[in-house]
Backbone:
């Protein structure tokens, strides 16, 4: 039984049309949002939830998979507007979400600024300004690898580092569904590593994909790409081989 809803969010960023796919999980007690887009995306999320027949104020929990700006950008606004929503993050990522530690993506962007072309610098500088202005939000609950949360038919936390050290994916055993976040993305119908040139530890990211093969996954939902239509196990194996052969 599927207890999830894909929120299809279309927008323009950096002059390009983009799409992200946050996910809503729901049962008789909880409505859980997975990731929340860029800053000022709350109205887009509210509209997308409404299309699914779900009132945004019914959300009880918000799980963030990692602290990239396109995953936590609207977190503080949502918490301020709906203070009853419980914010949940992996124990390694929580200090970056709440602002206790400096964003790893900001450190990466600043450290590589002098190495990029003059043509690429304006966009990189804009990213740095956006990351510097990102409003932190307090995390109400931290989770750890292999933790099984009892909500919405059960949610297993899979620690999938590489893209970021505290990155998590979520496995829903009841429907054999993986919410991959940025552990993998869909590009031209194929699974791939998310932005390999910006992945903080590419070898670790590939090992995380290898780890997903231990799970009985029938469908994958990617934050960038949506629902994957294909043989999941074969696609994951092919992706691992691509980076290890």
Residues:
């Amino acid at each position: 039984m599927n207890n999830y809803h894909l929120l299809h969010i279309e927008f323009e960023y950096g002059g390009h049309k983009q799409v992200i796919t946050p996910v809503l999980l729901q049962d008789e007690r909880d409505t859980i949002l997975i990731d929340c887009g860029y800053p000022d995306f709350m109205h887009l999320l509210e509209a997308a939830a409404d299309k699914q027949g779900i009132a945004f104020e019914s959300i009880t929990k918000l799980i963030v998979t990692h602290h990239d700006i396109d995953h936590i950008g609207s977190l503080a606004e949502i918490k301020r507007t709906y203070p009853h929503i419980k914010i949940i993050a992996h124990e390694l990522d929580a200090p970056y979400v709440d602002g206790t530690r400096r964003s790893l993506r900001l450190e990466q962007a600043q450290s590589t600024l002098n190495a990029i072309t003059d043509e690429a610098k304006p966009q990189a500088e804009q990213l740095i300004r956006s990351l510097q202005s990102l409003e932190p939000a307090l995390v109400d609950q931290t989770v750890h690898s292999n933790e099984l949360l009892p909500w919405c038919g059960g949610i297993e936390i899979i620690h999938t580092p590489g893209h970021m050290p505290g990155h998590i994916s979520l496995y829903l055993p009841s429907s054999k569904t993986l919410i991959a976040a940025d552990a993998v993305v869909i590009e031209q119908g194929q699974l791939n590593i998310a932005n390999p040139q910006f992945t903080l530890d590419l070898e670790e990211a590939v090992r995380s994909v290898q780890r997903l093969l231990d799970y009985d996954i029938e469908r994958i939902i990617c934050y960038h790409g949506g629902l994957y239509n294909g043989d999941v196990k074969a696609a994951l194996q092919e992706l691992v081989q691509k980076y290890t052969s």
Summary: The mean pLDDT is 96. The longest strand covers residues 9-13.
